[in-house]
Prior knowledge:
Helix content: over 70%
Largest sheet: 2 strands, antiparallel
Number of strands: 2
Order of helices and strands: HEEHHHHHHH
Strand content: under 5%
Amino acid sequence: MDKPEDAIRVQDRQGLFLYIVLGALFVAALVTCNLVANKFISVNLGFAEFQISAGVLPYPLTFLITDILSEVYGRKRTNAIVFSGFFASLLVLGILYAGSAFPALEQSPVNDTQYDSVFRNSWRGIGASMIAYLVAQFVDVRVFHFWKDLTKGKHLWLRNNFSTIFSQFLDTILVTTVIFAGRESFDFIAGLVWDGWLFKVTCALADTVLIYLAIFAIRNYFKLGRGEEIKL
């Protein structure tokens, strides 16, 4: 029969494994956002049509994951994942630069012009995204914990939505302004900010069900009380 301390060690390993998986999903979504951010698309959800960057599509997932991490692992561990995403983005930026520094072979399926048209234009987009990312993610984590402390661990929907809606607004303004300032009109930039933010708000409201299901499952599996966190 397993000793109590053996069961605790197994649970610690499982908690660490979940933390790593969530962190990996966060970084993957963030890097994908940066790589596809220069393509702008129109998304029709039936009740409204949004003109947004393709990078916005996976971005709400990053905020869902940081809210889950904040709820289950606390601010310190969540900030560590946020920093990991930042350094992963720096690595991607370096790799893209290295790829453009060497000429393509004649037999290469992707020539220099094609590569540069997609990835060289990513420098400004990734730079804008990294600035906005750091500000928005840290604001999201701070606001999330502000509401968590204020409500004494109750009303998960409140801190999930308030933190995400506010931080996404900052993110959308920053990234759109850095990319298009001096290149497009104020009306064009304002339109993209408005559409991008409303799309993110829609996703934030929709993922309320997902975060409740995720937190319920994690609390039940790890036998956590309300407001209790997994210690790593």
